[in-house]
């Protein structure tokens, strides 16, 4: 992705659409009697009335805030209606919200390239649609401009009162003397207003939007006027918008980079950045970060709308604060099993509906250790190749946990198995994610074909997918060793996809991480995508699997009946776990475990240390991975390419590395 490019030659029209108090709206659609009333969605944990996760605008009017608990909200607004988030597997179940988000995406995607940025946020590239409108049906030729368009906030327009305001907006939208950029923007605003009305009509949800010439400005603008409004950013207003915009509120500057800008340079607003030359910023923060900062100060951003309706990864998590912290391996395993069960269901549905397979399983945890000295220590995230099947995912996730725990406890040499020393560690958050999701290349033999009976396939999906995964997942050097017992551990490495995992996530909530992993829990695509097209060529000869591995005729019949049933019940997809899911579940039970549940800790660590971490240079070791996530994607990519070869080659690359390292070391204090 380019850092920035001149935007004047070919202006783009980008909209950022953000649903208003989204979970509340979903609950209000279920219970229409709540419409217009102060209401909020609370976590399932009822302590002090449950933590609020979404607050209606009516309740906000009474001073209710998301940071409150139910009891506190009732104090400031006694008439508030609190709705508990749906629960499954002892944790919040977000499927209703995910599905509702998908409904919206499928409508928005009708007018241009669409990127689903989180459970309730979408970027749209409306350039082509706006250009077509300007060519064929320009605003000044419209008989009437819709009220919703006239309600737009156009930054920089002087608005005395409501009537004047609408008149001004109309004049601006229909100005045949305006420059080309503004004309296109006006078309984009009209298209966005139409889309928002369509969303309201088809889903009953209101949303707000920002319309600008790039993603960064569109996102800033969408939050400026809520609910159910849209804000337009003409080029002439960009400086005014950014001049006083708090630096920490910028996407990617909320964390350590923003803190460094404030603390080290005294930069408090985006406008403050204008005093620094590009060279100076590059000197301080590295070439790419420096240029990126210089660009954002001027409202320049070359980030493309990705054209992604489906999530980049799936995640399932839960936190265990205070007395609920997990202190034994058995309780950790119990909860990991729940999380993995959900994750498995979701990736199987993704495979079935979208023909996509996930390739990496990652475990994250938060913990506190045996001593005060330990309080700053992070539980290391761990990844391994993802094997399909609930049992396998559960087994691998627990192995990852054990590997992480050994490393976390490290020098204390505490035992990681059993509960002999329950006081030595406590887990306050657990999450598992499936990432590196890829479409099955067309022509690949598909399980759907087999189940659907449209075409005979000579391999069960499990085998096909296993082959596919084997091909696609890069193997670690240790793969060549004949050490089945440690297979999983050998592949364990410090996760390299942590930034993917947290990208787009909402601020973590206190109680249930699941509620904060929104960007990655969006799992359903547009409705049209639920019936994939199957290639017609035969798959015979691709795999060698014995006949008894096929499901029996009965099972096949059962599976295909279940599938047709599910088609009928698209909107209650949750209740039906899907054919593949059942298939994997049943096969899973039948399968011999291929990996040892044994400890193997020493060898595992030795391999890991010997092959990886110990070989890292000091600078790489100092990088706080959470910082990487704050950076723009292209900078993350640069860091990745810098870090990975280092891991392999045990050499320090010069050049850009020095400047980036400067940034990271500056933040070590
Ligand atoms: P947001 O878009 O941040 O907020 P919102 O849609 O509730 O309200 P607004 O109109 O101000 O945009 O989040 C979308 C949904 O994500 C929200 O309804 C609830 C959920 N959520 C969490 O579960 N945890 C969080 O920390 C946040 C911020 C949101």
Automatic annotation (TrEMBL):
Listed PANTHER family: DNA POLYMERASE ETA (PTHR45873)
Reactions mediated catalytically: DNA(n) + a 2'-deoxyribonucleoside 5'-triphosphate = DNA(n+1) + diphosphate
Keyword Cell membrane applies: no
EC number in record: 2.7.7.7
Keyword entries, A-Z: DNA damage, DNA repair, Magnesium, Metal-binding, Nucleotidyltransferase, Nucleus, Transferase
Pfam (any one): IMS
GO biological process: DNA repair; error-prone translesion synthesis; response to UV
Transmembrane segments: none
Cofactor requirements of the protein: Mg(2+); Mn(2+)
Annotated protein name in UniProt: DNA polymerase eta
Gene Ontology CC: one annotated term: nucleus
Compartments reported by the entry: Nucleus
Protein family membership: Belongs to the DNA polymerase type-Y family.
Protein's organism: Linum trigynum
Polar residues bias spans: 537-546, 586-608
Main location: nucleus
SUPFAM superfamilies in alphabetical order: DNA/RNA polymerases, Lesion bypass DNA polymerase (Y-family), little finger domain
Entry coiled-coil feature ranges: none
């Amino acid at each position: 992705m380019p850092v920035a490019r001149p935007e004047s030659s070919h202006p783009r029209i980008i909209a950022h659409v953000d649903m208003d108090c989204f979970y509340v709206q979903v609950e209000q659609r279920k219970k229409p009697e709540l419409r217009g009333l102060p209401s909020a969605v609370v976590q399932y944990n009822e302590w002090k009335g449950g933590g609020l996760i979404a607050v209606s605008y009516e309740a906000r009017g009474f001073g209710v805030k998301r940071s409150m608990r139910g009891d506190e909200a009732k104090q400031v607004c006694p008439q508030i209606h609190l709705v508990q988030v749906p629960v499954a597997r002892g944790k919040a179940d977000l499927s209703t919200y995910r599905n509702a988000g998908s409904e919206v995406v499928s409508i928005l995607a009708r007018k241009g390239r669409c990127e689903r940025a989180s459970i309730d946020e979408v970027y749209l590239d409306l350039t082509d649609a706006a250009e077509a409108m300007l060519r064929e049906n320009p605003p000044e030729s419209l008989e009437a401009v819709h009220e919703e368009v006239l309600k737009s906030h156009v930054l920089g327009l002087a608005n005395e009162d409501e009537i004047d305001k609408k008149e001004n907006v109309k004049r601006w939208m229909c100005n045949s003397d305006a420059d080309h950029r503004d004309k296109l923007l006006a078309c984009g605003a009209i298209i966005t207003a139409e889309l928002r009305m369509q969303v309201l009509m088809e889903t009953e949800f209101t949303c707000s939007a920002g319309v600008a010439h790039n993603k960064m400005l569109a996102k800033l603008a969408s939050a400026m006027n809520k609910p159910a409004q849209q804000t337009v950013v003409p080029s002439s207003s960009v400086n005014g918008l950014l001049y006083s915009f708090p630096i920490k509120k910028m996407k990617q500057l909320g964390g350590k980079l923003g803190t460094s800008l404030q603390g080290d340079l005294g930069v408090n607003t985006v406008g403050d950045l204008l005093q620094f030359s590009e060279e100076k910023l590059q000197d301080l923060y590295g070439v790419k970060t420096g240029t990126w900062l210089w660009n954002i100060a001027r409202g320049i951003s070359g980030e493309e709308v990705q054209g992604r309706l489906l999530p980049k990864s799936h995640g399932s998590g839960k936190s265990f604060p205070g007395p609920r912290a997990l202190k034994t391996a058995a309780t950790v395993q119990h909860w990991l099993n729940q999380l993995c069960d959900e994750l498995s269901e979701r990736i199987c549905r993704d495979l079935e509906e979208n023909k996509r397979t996930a390739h990496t399983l990652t475990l994250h945890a938060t913990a506190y250790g045996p001593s005060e000295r330990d309080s700053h220590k992070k539980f290391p995230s761990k990844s391994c190749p993802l094997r399909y099947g609930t049992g396998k995912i559960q087994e691998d996730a627990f192995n990852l946990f054990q590997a992480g725990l050994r490393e976390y406890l490290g020098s204390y040499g505490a035992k990681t198995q059993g509960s002999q020393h329950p006081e030595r560690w406590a887990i306050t958050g657990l999450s598992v994610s499936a990432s590196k999701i890829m479409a099955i290349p067309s022509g690949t033999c598909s399980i759907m074909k087999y189940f659907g009976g449209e075409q005979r396939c000579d391999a069960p999906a499990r085998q096909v997918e296993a082959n596919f995964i084997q091909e696609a997942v890069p193997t670690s050097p240790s793969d060549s060793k004949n050490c089945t017992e440690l297979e999983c551990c050998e592949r364990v490495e410090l996760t390299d996809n942590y930034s993917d995992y947290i990208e787009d996530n909402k601020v973590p909530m206190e109680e249930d991480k699941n509620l904060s992993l929104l960007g990655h829990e969006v799992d359903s695509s547009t409705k049209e995508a639920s019936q994939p097209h199957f290639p017609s060529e035969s798959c015979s000869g691709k795999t060698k699997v014995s006949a008894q591995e096929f499901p029996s005729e009965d099972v096949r019949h059962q599976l295909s009946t279940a599938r047709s049933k599910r088609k009928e019940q698209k909107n209650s997809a949750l209740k039906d776990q899907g054919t593949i899911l059942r298939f994997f579940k049943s096969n899973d039970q039948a399968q011999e475990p291929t990996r040892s549940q044994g400890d193997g800790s020493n060898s595992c660590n030795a391999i890991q240390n010997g092959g990886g971490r110990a070989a890292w240079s000091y600078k790489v070791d100092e990088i706080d991975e959470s910082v990487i996530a704050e950076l723009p994607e292209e900078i993350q990519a640069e860091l990745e390419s810098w870090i990975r070869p280092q891991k392999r080659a045990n050499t320090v690359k010069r050049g850009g590395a020095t400047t980036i390292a400067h940034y990271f070391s500056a933040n070590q204090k």
